[in-house]
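Hey team,

Filing this mostly as a record. A colleague (T.K.) asked me to run one chain through the structure pipeline before their review meeting, and I want the input and output archived in the tracker in case anyone asks later how it was produced. No errors, nothing strange. Just documentation.

Input sequence:
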Amino acid sequence: MRHSPNNARLYALLCTLVVVLGIFFRLWVFNSHESFWKDEAGLARNFLTHDFAHIADPFGDGQAIPIGYAQICKGFEHLLGHNEHAFWSVSLIAGSVLLGLSAILFGAILPAGAALIALGALAFDTTLIQYSVEFKAYMMDSLAALLMARAFFNYQTKGAHRNAVYLLSGVISLWISYVSVFIIAGLGLWQLWEAFNSHPLPTPSGRGRNTGSKDPVPLGGLRIIMARLCARPFLRVLWVNTALASVFAVLWALNYRFLDARGFFSGFWKDHFVPLPWQPGFIDWWTNTLPGIIGWLFGQEQFLIWIFFVVLGLYRAWEINRRLLALTFPILLTLIAGALHLYPVYDRLVLFWAVLLTPFLALGLFHVWEVFNKQYRTITLAFALILVLPFLHPLHRLSHSHDSQQLKQVCMAVSRAARPGDTIYVHNRAAELYKYYFHRYPPVKGVKLVFGQKAETLSLAPYLEKHFKGRHLYFMYTEPCYQPDEIDYLGRYTQARGELKRDLDMNLAGAFELQLH
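Output structure:
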């Protein structure tokens, strides 16, 4: 939306400040991170065995990423070497581009105040900051959502260059993101419906709308439908979306059909097909900070406050620009896919929702701001402080960041401490993950490296006593996945001089140094 000349300069300055701060927070996390967490390590192992020519082949370790994202990461690996920061650089760039595009998009479709709130919500969302520095494709999903939203609102049924821009945006999105199929399909349905209804009803003479009367001459329902389906605007939209569907079909044949080859969706994510909207991990900042503060003041649950502002924003979108409601179509398609057990609806797997719902959250918040400003000027400042306080949350969160699972640090510590004759036993749950880091940081010659098998976890203590009795043993693990007797067993033999356990807030990675008697 256009802004008054008096406010345009201030708006541009504030947007620039928000984008710069958002990028600064991402660089902060990028610089402070040292280790992959377990899923990243599993993904990185595939890059050790897949060259560029075979990067589209199915991945092991239960991992799968879009072809484009894999190719980009492989290119950065060749350019910067095989290391954590080389792979994180891709997500960092995607997260930074996301903020720049957000400033442009929100400034075009929202009032200035709402656009600034929306931009701030994305810039300071700790979930988006986290995934902007992670070797996973989730930030690409969010970027694809924003890229397609930008192309959608720029799209016009007339003009070949608009078709080309939308088509190019769709191809890029399908190339870098699995969930872009929901985004493109949802926006495409809105476009088709809009083009279908925009064509004037024909008259019996076939000359378009009858200018001599207020209403067109009534025609049969089938003739009206066929006339609209054959109209140039509808055919143009249909052609673009059919072309994108063809691109998706090619990508499906090359890579996407392997996505659930190992039953990953139907097995690991089987409990998350039914949508659980009351537990939205993908909107961390919204539920844990801004609505949390307002909810605390009014004695309400956090998510109820979030729902209130989004519903209010949907209402305002209906009044201001109904085309904004097209952003809800990809979400509805994802929910339908979840109900049909085609795609799991679970926090980071639907991270792109944050981008699509942010405009409505911002509209709802801005509407309340307008009401306060017009009728209750004396408490407008208090409401402004409520809006600003959550923006300080990332500073605390990032300065006390323990979100990374420190596989690398634990592996390097054990590799340095182990001496010839020692044994390093890696628990089954951690075997595939530590294999990656032991490949990069192997222990000295003479150290026996043993990776546990799944069957051993049922009777781990007797197994260790039988096979490693009298040995100096480093027991490595991830996550608290042991029976109580296993914890007690390890505790009895832990040496006071050599405990290497690492306790973190989100994940666990560590090792016990044992002397088995």
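Quick notes for T.K.: The chain has two domains: 5-399, 407-515. The chain is about 60% helix and 5% strand.
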